[in-house]
Amino acid sequence: MTQFTHHVRRAMATQAEVRLFGDDVAQLDAVAEMAFDEIARVEQLLSRFDATSELSRINREAAGGACLVDFELLQILSDCRAWWLLTEGAFDIASGSRDESGAPLTLDAVELDVERRLVSFRASGVRLDLGAYGKGYALDCVAKLMRNQGVTSALLDLGTSSLVAIGAPLDAPAWTIDLQNRSEISSPFETLTLCDAALSTSAVWHSPRDHAITSDLLDPNTGQPLKTTATCTVIAPTATTAEALSTAFVVMGRDRADALLAEWQNPSWRAIWCEEACPVVDSQTVETAESQAARL
């Protein structure tokens, strides 16, 4: 009999949720625990807020000379450099770094020696922040783990802005995700479907109450928070791809993002724009699938 389980845990400074369909509740519960353990492992590797993390060690030591890097982190940094180049600097994990004069620094100030597994900073003010990309990486790791455990139907999310779908829910072709406008939450701005794909939303919010701009995203050219309101949701095969692209697209703006998408001609990458949208899992779809599972 097909079962549905829903697990919630605090992780990576947000709410992590794991929805699973399968035949054995005990196995689903065990897989969910493995998922949360994997997220915790990735956070311990990548968090800039944890002084014991590998990333924090690199931030402390790499300006003083080349540092030997954990192989996994080295691969992540290499991937981030590739995204930095592909997005013409719009995706930059060194955003916010400054040299001694106060001038902004970019990922160009980071030197990677992949063969020797070394990283060094060309300036003392470089600080790497994997931020949302780290959430995407954690979700990709969990998705790989779950597939290795035989999971064929799951929805994973970290803070609702980062999601990965494995397969589809019971008796449905895909998981349903509503994009809701923050100022008009009564009806979805757009309804998306996910099946063996990932979704990420990056945004710069405008508060109608005090007209303030809210964003964790920085302009790599200035090191300052972005000032233009924009929200971009990207669907891609992996969570890291979706995170890198949604971040870069908001930074560069819609016109340049649309031009690059047309140039890249990758049909598996899709961008959806809205002034103030946020993704919400369609509870009706999940509840319907859950009730169907209970009847089997």
In short:
With 296 residues, this protein is α+β, with helices and mostly antiparallel strands.
Q: What spatial form do the alpha-carbon principal axes imply?
A: globular
Largest sheet: 8 strands, antiparallel
CATH topology assignment of the largest domain: T-fold
Classified by CATH, the class of the largest domain is: Alpha Beta
**Which CATH architecture of the largest domain would you pick?**
Roll
Measured as a percent range, the helix fraction is 25-40%
- The number of distinct β-strands equals 14
Content-based structural category: alpha+beta
CA radius of gyration is 20 Å
Strand content: 25-35%
Total domain count: 2
Average pLDDT confidence is: 90
The H-level CATH homologous superfamily of the largest domain, spelled out, is ApbE-like domains
SSE order, one letter for each helix or strand: EEHHEHEEHEEEEEEEHHEEH
- Count of separate DSSP helical elements: 7
Instruction: Pick out the low-confidence regions.
Output: 283-288, 291-296
Beginning-to-end CA distance, first to last residue: 5 Å
Folded structure, characterized:
Helix content is 34%, strand content 29%. The chain has 296 residues and is α+β, with helices and mostly antiparallel strands. It folds into 2 domains: 3-30 and 152-295, T-fold (Roll); 49-129, T-fold (Orthogonal Bundle), CATH 1.10.3980.10. Strands 1, 2, 6, 7, 10, 11, 12 and 13 form an 8-stranded antiparallel sheet that branches. The chain has a 3-stranded antiparallel sheet with strand order 3-5-4, with helices on one face. Helix 1 runs antiparallel to helix 4. The longest helix has 22 residues, at 25-46. It is globular. Mean pLDDT is 90; it is low at 283-288 and 291-296.
